[in-house]
Design goal:
It is a single chain. By secondary structure, the protein is an alpha/beta fold. The protein folds into 2 domains: 191 residues, Isopropylmalate Dehydrogenase (3-Layer(aba) Sandwich); 126 residues, Isopropylmalate Dehydrogenase (3-Layer(aba) Sandwich), CATH 3.40.718.10. It is built from 11 helices and 12 strands. It has a 10-stranded mixed sheet, sandwiched between helices. Strands 6-7 form a two-stranded antiparallel sheet. α1 packs across α9. It is globular.
């Protein structure tokens, strides 16, 4: 069966890391039809819209969406923002559960971030007196569906789930805590605990190995996942999967477009390649291939590290090392 994957290279280093992802995905023993479309700044330059209608239509029809990166100072002049294309795409596909694994020395945790609610999608504006506001809102249904996803993922791992909020201050967090607590009876095999976001952030720095699965709202998840990435090697290694119930998922590295190194060959494609592994697992139903790719990426990082990891390998050289590791059956 042929699966359709839409690739959105995006901006900055996005096309470079996306090229390695396409190279690796095309070499795997599955039938994949790949097509590329514009998103972000590249789409603004071409058609004046960060999410062109034909891009959205193609994504809706795909089995999975693979994204490079969007954004850059080039588009800071007051017109459309590249990031708006990604935010609108997430909303249109209703990919409400953002999975951000962080794996390192003695660390194997998964942050499940609610992705289509909260501050990033609430009412915002400026009042006549100059006051600027952003509104954080959540409905019980929004909280329940991402919490259920997190409970299911915890059930597949160690059976431990930490729900992160700021319930001592925020009404939205009190709702979050009530809903997750109410769901716990449906998952008697999962141990649910609650934590305040500030203390959890501190513990992520001091004792990241103590965590397994964390679930939290949009803004907290954005911040905590970057902390988790930092303690496991940096954003160049951090992948993500954004999943819904019926629409295709979006698979992308956590890092930005890094325009300062675009075109130099120094970009680390690891996060992008790990996102391909998530795509195989959660998007195409190929968990065995996902594990093989993860092992090949780990082997390649040892053989051909990029400059951010103290090595000299270029973007394409690390991609080639992954292909070599796959050919040698590293994960067999």
């Amino acid at each position: 069966m042929t699966r359709r994957v839409v690739c959105l290279p995006g901006d900055g280093i996005g096309p470079e890391v996306a090229a390695e992802a396409v190279r690796v995905l095309s070499a795997l023993p599955i039938e994949v039809e790949l097509e590329q479309h514009l998103l972000g700044g590249a789409a603004i330059d071409a058609v004046g819209d960060p999410l062109p209608p034909d891009t959205l239509a193609a994504c809706r029809e795909a089995d999975a969406v693979l994204l490079g990166a969007v954004g850059g100072a080039k588009w800071d002049g007051g017109g459309p923002r590249p990031e708006a294309g990604l935010i609108d795409l997430r909303k249109a596909l209703d990919v409400y559960a953002n999975l951000r694994p962080a794996v390192g020395d003695g660390i194997d945790l998964l942050i499940v971030r609610e992705l289509v609610g909260g501050l990033y999608y609430g009412a915002r504006g400026t009042r006549e007196d100059g006051t600027v506001f952003d509104t954080c809102e959540y409905t019980p249904d929004q909280v329940e569906r991402v919490a259920r996803r997190a409970f299911e993922l915890a059930r597949r791992r160690s059976g431990r789930l930490l729900s992160v909020d700021k319930a001592n201050v925020l009404e939205t967090s009190r709702l979050w805590r009530r809903v997750t607590t109410g769901l716990a009876t449906d998952y008697p095999d999962v141990e649910l605990r609650h934590g305040l976001v500030d203390s959890v952030a501190m513990q992520l720095v001091t004792d990241p190995g103590s965590f397994d699965v964390l679930v939290t709202e949009n803004t907290f998840g954005d911040i905590l996942s970057d902390i988790a990435a930092a303690v496991t090697g940096g954003l160049g290694l951090a992948s993500s999967a954004s999943l819904g119930d019926a629409n295709p998922g979006i698979f992308e590295p956590v890092h930005g477009s890094a325009p300062d190194i675009a075109g130099t060959g120094a970009a680390n494609p690891t996060a992008m390649l790990r996102s391909v592994a998530l795509l195989l697992d959660h998007g195409l139903g190929e968990p065995a291939l996902a594990r093989s790719l993860e092992a090949a990426v780990a082997a390649a990082l040892e053989a051909a590290p990029t400059p951010d990891l103290g090595g000299t390998a270029t973007t394409s050289e690390l991609g080639s090392a992954v292909l070599d590791a796959l050919a040698q059956g590293v994960a067999a």
